Amino acid sequence: MRGIAHTRWAACVVATALAAVGCGGPGSGGNGGAVLSASWSDPQNPLEPANTNEVQGGKVLDMIFRGLKKYDPRTGKAQDWLARSIETKDSQHFTVRLRGGWTFSDGEKVTARSFVDAWNYGASLRNNQKNAYFFGYIDGYDKVHPAGGRQSADRLSGLKVVDDRTFTVTLNQKFSGFPDTLGYAAFVPLPRVFFTDHAAWLDKPVGNGPYTIESYTKGAQMYLRKRDDYPGPDKARNDGVTLLVYTDTNTAYTDLLAGNLDLTDDIPAAQLKNVKGDLGGRYINSPAGIIQTLAFPYYDKAWNRPGSVKVRTGLSMAVNRELITGTLFRKTRTPATDWTSPVLGAAGGFKAGLCGPACHYDPARARRLIEEGGGIPGGQVKITYNADAGSHREWVDAVCNSINNALGDDKACVGNPVGTFADFRNRLGQHRMTGPFRAGWQMDYPLIQNFLQPLYYTGASSNDGRWSNKEFDRLVDRANAETDTAKAVAGFQQAEKVVRDNMAAIPLWYQNGNAGYSERLSDVALNPFSVPVYNEIKVG
């Protein structure tokens, strides 16, 4: 899930006239037992799986749902979970067979219909789901979600229920990586109550995972309880998780040190110099499938004019990535040299150095390119970011300082904060950006395709800047149709070169996942998506 959508932000404060105080001690909320508390932030939208494409909502979905595939929490490899098998002879027609014994938390059996109905709902234009695009490869998508006008069908023609444990999927083109995408939350099954009493389901979602949502107070906390009758092999090793809403990562960190919080998975940049001394072995810094970029509003003609490629490339060369990652982030970030992530490995599509000189700090060339491209629109770069995560301000300021120094103009670049993550996302969705904006991407699944297509394909779900390039689209379609994995990866790398040659977005750095936890906890780890593996954590 998680597109810039997949950003990280956190928060829990109850404000008074004079100060902000934390949300209470570990396991607060009166839940007792072996319950852990963790920092969190309210999701942007209600927790419909096909309508959640940001990290905080994704954390909850990952606890209350399980899908056909599950990504190994250590390697990221897609493993069959509810799927007993997913078979194909041509990478276009798939037969899915389910394991028996799976139920939702309300006792309903998980069947083939649970998946097919959920996917039809997610794809429907009428339901306005943010992740509808993920169903775009299934035959009939153009009828249930047309590019223009009303939908002419209610169900995807490419989905057929064979029996309770079998359904078939027909794609509108070959896509050899399709099975490995099915661990993403948009593809989870849904119970009948989701359709028959939608309001009740939204109020208290019913899933088939190792936890159930017991209560949620927006702006304060969500309590998830261990599901005792969960049939899967990855049962929760704790009694539950209380997710506490924080508006400042520094407050969360202070609460952790004070014993008022068990786990925070976003250490503020200002504390990185102290964290090892504060926490010792209870500090985690591990590679994750996350890249931070600066994206552009291509719907604004000022940023999409002849010469804009030179301006964007010049701005990229004005950013001293080595200095910023080394001093501000203290080895929790690595300068980006492509548009994917090192966690993919070379075989998976990561290609160090693909960006070339455009990602090297070169003030003289940066100035020349920006001048040749017609100069910065309006004479000033304003980088928009959400202000409710303190670390964003720090790195945006650092990037602007670098650009200002490179260009010899202390007003060439400034930060442009907006109040909350929800405000930021809404402004993106309404295409109201007037300059570059932060675009963190956390992979939904470990494929090079996921770092490229959702962000840069014409009309894609997380293509917030509305960049469009026919050659890129053509190369992506061709790579998706390739049945040989190595050839498919090479095809995506060709498409990535189009992103590079147009500097569709400026790659800044690869981000590690980091976290800190209390002495009450053990077996704490982050998965390759930088999300805590909550079900494996032990309390006490």
Features:
alpha+beta, five-stranded antiparallel sheet, 21 strands, 540 residues, four-stranded mixed sheet, globular
Report on the architecture of this protein.
The protein has 540 residues and is of the alpha+beta class. The protein is built from 16 helices and 21 strands. The strands form 7 sheets. Strands 13, 14, 15, 18 and 19 form a 5-stranded antiparallel β-sheet that branches. Strand 1 and strand 2 form a beta hairpin. Helix 11 crosses helix 12. It is globular, with a radius of gyration of 23 Å. 55% of the residues are buried.
Total helices: the number is: 16
Mean pLDDT: 92
Major sheet? 5 strands, antiparallel
How large is the radius of gyration?
A: 23 Å
Specify the structural class.
Answer: alpha+beta
* Percent strand: 15-25%
Helical content band: 25-40%
Distance between the termini: 31 Å
Q: Give the strand tally.
A: 21
Shape: globular
**Low-confidence spans: pLDDT under 50, at least 5 residues?**
1-25
Question: How do you describe this structure in short?
Answer:
The protein has helices spanning 55-64, 112-123, 141-144, 193-196, 198-203, 249-258, 275-279, 308-317, 321-327, 345-348, 363-372, 390-407, 421-429, 448-456, 470-481, 485-502; strands at 14-15, 20-21, 35-40, 69-71, 78-80, 83-88, 93-98, 159-163, 166-170, 211-217, 221-226, 240-245, 263-264, 283-295, 333-335, 381-386, 413-418, 437-442, 506-517, 521-522, 538-539.
